[in-house]
Amino acid sequence: MRLMLKFTIPVEKGNQSAEDGTLGNAIQELVESVNAEASYFALEDGKRMGIIIFEETDQARMPTINEPFFRAVNASIEIQPVLTAQDLQRSLG
User: Fold this and answer.
1) How far is the CA of 10 from the CAs of 57, 63, 69, 73, 87, in angstroms?
2) Which of 27, 39, 42, 77 is exposed most, by the fewest CB atoms within 10 A?
3) Domain residue limits, the chain
4) Residue 5: its pLDDT value, please?
5) Separation between Cα atoms, residue 30 and residue 67, nearest integer Å
6) Would you give the end-to-end CA distance of the chain in angstroms?
7) 2-92 belongs to which homologous superfamily?
8) Over the stretch 14-72, which tens digit does the pLDDT of each residue have?
9) How far apart are CA 45 and CA 58, in angstroms?
10) Rounded to an integer, what distance in angstroms lies between the CA atom of residue 34 and that of residue 14?
């Protein structure tokens, strides 16, 4: 199943982790751990935000994906299934 993981990082923790070098490593490890199809980074409500698209078939992996990122940068994480335009067309007939 194709999933979208969206994260936001509190400003203070983001600044601290950017300064000590853990932010870049945490993001890289997250992207690599899910074998991301795509990843995008922006700001949302003044906070660092990212969207990562990936395929996952085992929902039991969610804690191993989320927990290291929670701990590293105090992130808020939302995960939801997403469709490509082709998936949507196929499901609409």
Assistant:
1) 30, 20, 13, 8, 34
2) 42
3) 2-92
4) 98
5) 10
6) 19
7) Dimeric alpha+beta barrel (3.30.70.1060)
8) 999 999 999 999 999 999 999 999 999 999 999 999 999 999 999 999 999 999 999 99
9) 32
10) 22
The alpha helices in the chain, defined as continuous H runs, are: 11-20, 22-33, 62-73, 85-92
Please give the torsion angle defined by the CA atoms of residues 34, 36, 41 and 46, in that order, rounded to the nearest 10 degrees: -30
Q: How far apart are CA 10 and CA 1, in angstroms?
A: 29
Q: Is the dihedral of CA 65, 66, 71, 73 positive or negative?
A: positive
Give the Cα separation of 20 and 60 in Å (integer).
Answer: 31
Query: Is pLDDT of 91 > 90?
Result: no
The answer to whether the CB of 36 falls within 8 A of the CB of 2 is no
Q: Which residues pair with 49 in a beta bridge?
A: 8, 42
